[in-house]
Design brief:
Blueprint: H1 12-20, H2 29-42, H3 47-60, H4 66-70, H5 74-81, H6 90-110, H7 113-118, E1 126-127, H8 141-152, H9 160-169, E2 173-174
Parallel strand pairs: 1-2
Helix pairs in contact: 2-3, 2-6, 2-9, 8-9
């Protein structure tokens, strides 16, 4: 049996996510946007809730094509509010549209969102050495800084806790526990 991080349940979906995605460095803008959207919708909820609805989100949000999302009309917004397959939070749905527009602005300014976000860590993941649940921070000085910078640009639902979870998901920080089989990869 594989030794995994303490937070992984016996859910096959959770195990696959942990084993194949979480903490693996992501440099592709489309995937970065997908994680940003999912993390913003997760605010205040459990990650397994989001994972269980991920494919519904993918369908509802045009496969996370940020160019399309940035152009969503009022009627598309209204239809998303009726979609029981996703989290039907007015502010979070609105924020997905706003964040898509701002994501494109960052791409225009920096060449890609990836260049922008990875510049905070000099384009190399931070490798942490956590052993126990108690050692994990909910936020760091860096997630505070990125959160502030994104908020200044107008992004919504990007508090420091959401940003730290985003950093973990996209592999900006390797927070696999030292006894996890994924730690050294």
């Amino acid at each position: 049996m594989k030794n995994r991080c303490f937070w992984v349940t016996d859910s096959k979906l959770y195990q696959d996510y942990h084993d194949n995605e979480w903490g693996k460095p992501v440099y592709d803008d489309k995937t970065l946007f997908e994680f940003l959207i999912l993390e913003t919708f997760q605010a205040g909820l459990s990650w397994i809730t989001i994972l269980n609805k991920r494919e519904n989100f993918r369908q509802a949000f045009d496969d996370f094509e940020y160019q399309k999302i940035a152009e969503y009309s009022e009627s598309k917004y209204e239809s998303l509010l009726q979609d029981a397959g996703i989290i039907r939070n007015k502010l979070k749905i609105k924020s997905a549209i706003i964040n898509a527009q701002l994501f494109i602005e960052i791409q225009q300014e920096f060449g890609s969102f990836s260049k922008f976000i990875w510049s905070y860590v000099n384009h190399k993941p931070i490798i942490n050495h956590f052993k126990t649940r108690e050692e994990f921070p909910a936020t760091t000085e860096l997630s505070d800084k990125i959160s502030k910078d994104l908020k200044k640009r107008g992004f919504k639902f990007v508090g420091s806790t959401v940003i730290y979870a985003f950093m973990q998901a996209i592999g900006m920080v390797n927070d696999h526990t030292t006894d996890c089989f994924r730690y050294s990869r």
